[in-house]
Amino acid sequence: MTKTWAVLHDRNARLCLTGVLVSGLGTSALWLVSGVWVKDLTGSNGLAALCMLAMWAPTLAGPLLGTIADRLRRKPLLTSCNLLLAALLPVLLTERVAVVLTVLFVYGAVGVVQDAAESALVAGAVAPALLGDFNGLRTALTEGMKLVAPLAGAGLYALYGGPAVALLDAATFVLAALVSCALRVREDGPEPSRRTPFVEGARHLWAHPALRPLILAGGTTMLLAGLNGALLYAVIDGLGHSPAYAGALYAVQGAGSVAVGLVSGPALRRLGERRFATYGIALTAVAAGLRAIPSDPLALACSAAVGAGLPCVLIAALTAVQRATPDSLLGRTVATANTLVYTPNVLGLAAGAALVGPVDQRPLSAVLGVVWLAAAVPLFQRPVSAERIASRSPSDANPA
């Protein structure tokens, strides 16, 4: 754990994590409250569901939006994104549904740019040997906020309504902007490029022998995670509980994700990206399959195991991308990787929603576990050269 503590002693890493913590508080609160808010304003479940869609839809344009992080200096870009959202969120005080959905769409688009800029900035500001630890701690903070912030947001909404949550989120972005201003980084001017944004990021991911299997495994994992998530309430029905029992399962799953985030750095150093991802996928697959057995203790244990296993391939893939991508391509490559990894989750949710009615949950969970385990097979096929490439830093990949 020595290097994990070294992350907290690194000034830039500490500031970046502080920014994640602060902005994550407001973002997690707004994600929960926005749907409830629109439901209260209109009484429509469909419009409430559109809130989540509005925030996720810009992910599909990740390769294009990520190019912005390669065309501009990342520190001022990150600060500007935070200030833009801080200025935009008070518009929600109008409490008009069309305005809420528009603001959430812009919020999602700016978030894609922020993620790309932050990941690229971190790759240059934090020592390459500490990237795995940083990404693990980032995951722990993000998942921790998902446990705390929704409750805080719901309480604030119950007392003062949606505008109060919007103002809280705006305030967190002002603080995040101040934190990003304090970063000490030296950035070279962005390099011009004639290729299309998607081709550059996608081509690098596909051609790289270490990155391609990790991204494919990540996308497959999130596809199956969406399917697994759609079965949640069927699992709860099989246990004989009310839908509110989902809160306990989500809490245990979040705790598992926080735990694995704290140990990801040492695990990545010991196992490497491929084996770390493989073990995480295997753990998640077994847990998903065992949900076919109706047992309360087993259901809680499986939720914790899914929470611990699911982030492994995501942390491994991001760390590998940061280490093995030239700085001039890093913004769009990270955004392209996020699109390829996270978009299948929506497809999995849709497939699960279609299957959970006509097909019994127990055999479906068992089959899901077997299919999920097969997703780890390509990661066992490790070329020696890929291991060497994956361990290089961004400066090694771009000597100039």
Structure description:
By secondary structure, the protein is an all-alpha fold. The protein folds into two domains: 182 residues, Growth Hormone, Chain: A (Up-down Bundle); 202 residues, Growth Hormone, Chain: A (Up-down Bundle), CATH 1.20.1250. The chain contains 18 helices and no strands. α4 crosses α6 and α7 packs across α13. The longest helix is centred in the last third of the chain and has 45 residues. It is globular.
Helices and strands in order:
Elements: H1 2-9, H2 11-42, H3 45-56, H4 62-71, H5 74-88, H6 97-125, H7 131-160, H8 162-181, H9 197-207, H10 211-230, H11 232-239, H12 246-290, H13 296-324, H14 327-355, H15 361-374, H16 377-380, H17 384-390, H18 394-397
Helix pairs in contact: 2-3, 2-6, 2-7, 2-8, 3-6, 4-6, 4-9, 4-14, 5-6, 5-8, 6-14, 7-8, 7-12, 7-13, 9-14, 10-12, 10-13, 10-14, 12-13, 12-15, 13-14
